[in-house]
User: Fold this.
Amino acid sequence: MSKAIRIHAVGGPEVMKWEQVPTPQPGPAEALIRHEAVGLNYIDVYFRTGLYKTQLPATLGMEGAGVVLAVGEEVQDLRPGERVAYAGGPLGAYATERVIGADRLVKLPESIDCKTAAAMMLAGMTAQYLLHRTFKVQAGQNILVHAAAGGVGLIICQWASHIGANVIGVVSTPEKAALAAANGAKHTIVGYSGLAAEVKRITGGAMVAAVYDSVGRDTFNASLDCLAPLGMMVSYGNASGPVPPFDIGLLAAKGSLFLTRPNFATYTATAADLRAASASLFNAVTSGIVKIQVNQTFPLEHAAAAHEALEARKTTGSTVLLP
Assistant:
């Protein structure tokens, strides 16, 4: 038998239950892994609250790292005992053991431990495609990063700074501003009241080429106002709630702006895309371009407390759940 955090109804953190479940067995193209660490991400909150739909009862979690225990008969490139990591689903990471498609697993370099891997796979590969595919950041460009002290935000700040971009980080507290500044943000802004005016001051009126916005409803309009003509609005999260419908004519009126809502599953849909993104991330981490900061850990059985801290904006960097 295994243990898992499951939900039988959507709602607050209290709907998460620590339960005993049968240990699954791998199918022909699957692998059974024992988790050493599980990543906490805001998308887990979306599934718990019902913003994103899933069949109930459900085991939450989109990211983990551990050791292969067994593989199906069709699996050729994985062996029991190898260390692996994954991100992006299907749901089921909040468990001591789980089965997952072998083509969704990547082998870990010796220099990356499982706790670091669980903290970085979803956030790191998200940052990778946001910076290198969704909007290809170039040296000298101004970019604006919301939640700059969060898991994805800190990685974007470091990676974009290495590329040579001028990073403006938006955070909720002075302490988080200091953290973002220490990780590559050339300028920081606390709060988003008067955001466009502050960005105009910082950039001397040039504004920014791209905004990376994971906050959603509360920052969307202010983010659009920060863009230079032909700028790109990258809305990749809804921490404050989904963006309501709006007149797309606003994009024309504000300077022929571009708007995209990227999705992790699309950017890593093929095994080739997944391996390319993870290889790029592993290279950035092992070379020191990106440093992964695991600033909070919780026992897996206390995942509800981790959700409470995440939603209250009491976390920075990455949070890991330990089975």
Summary: The chain has two domains: 2-121+265-322, 139-261. The mean pLDDT is 96. The first helix runs from residue 42 to 49.
